[in-house]
Design brief:
Strand 6 and strand 7 form a beta hairpin. By secondary structure, the chain is α+β, with helices and mostly antiparallel strands. The chain is globular, with a radius of gyration of 29 Å. The chain has one domain. Helix 3 packs antiparallel against helix 4.
């Protein structure tokens, strides 16, 4: 009878990676992907920022010039301006790009349908005597009748604006500003503000309006001057 060695029944050593090791690799791979994502879109934002500065310079169209650009974050930067008008003091633009460098912020902005925007702010020589914030909202509906896809066949109807106020006395300056706002041809202004504290004047428009394909183009600063002058913010 042959002898059986106990070594023949020795357990086989497992060379598989422990669970904590696999988790560490997954975490490291995820972190690397996030860093690479951030750096790629950070560089993309910088290139887009350079293009936006070119759009701004073109929109000024001889009315002023860009004097400084300062990045405040990965997708937000401030542009200092020098304008050839005494209406605005210390003018500047705050540009908010789409925050693509962080996926969760990008998704949140897409979900809320918040467009990339640019905000112009400046002071007046004499502060306004009122605080006012105007935001543009649009509603649209569709009935059961067929709706033509060609905009040339659309029918428009102008309605009287409605202003709600809690003040007993309605200031003349507010009426002038509202008339100027309603006269904006393309309605590109998303929000408009007059403040007794600095900045005295601020206006936000969609960033795409400044692009070569945008609707505002070189008229944007004319629109801003019209809005500021329409409010008669200066005291006579």
């Amino acid at each position: 009878m042959s002898e059986i060695s106990t070594s023949d029944f020795a357990p086989v050593a497992s060379y598989g990676m422990p669970m904590w090791g696999r988790m560490a690799i997954c975490i490291a791979a995820g972190a690397t992907a996030v860093v690479v994502w951030y750096l790629v879109f950070l560089r993309s934002n910088r290139r887009q920022g350079d293009r936006v500065v070119e759009w701004i310079q073109a929109a000024l169209a001889g009315q002023g010039q860009v004097v400084a650009v300062r990045w405040l974050g990965a997708s937000i930067f401030r542009v200092g301006l020098r304008l050839g008008t005494s209406l605005f003091q210390h003018p500047a633009l705050l540009v908010r790009l789409t925050p693509r460098e962080l996926p969760h912020r990008w998704l949140r902005q897409w979900w809320r349908r918040e467009p990339a925007a640019i905000t112009f702010d400046a002071d007046f020589e004499i502060p306004p005597v009122f605080d006012l914030q105007v935001r543009q909202h649009r509603w649209s509906g569709r009935g059961s009748a067929p709706f033509p896809s060609d905009p040339e066949r659309w029918e428009y109807e102008q309605v009287t604006p409605l202003i709600l106020t809690s003040r007993r006395s309605y200031q003349r300056e507010v009426t002038g500003m509202m008339n100027a706002l309603l006269s904006c041809r393309e309605r590109e202004v998303l929000s408009l503000g007059f403040h007794r504290a600095s900045p005295h004047f601020s206006a936000t428009i969609r960033l795409e309006c400044l692009s070569p394909e945008g609707r505002a183009g070189s008229n944007v600063f004319d629109t801003l001057k019209e809005l500021a002058a329409g409010a008669s913010a200066r005291r006579r």
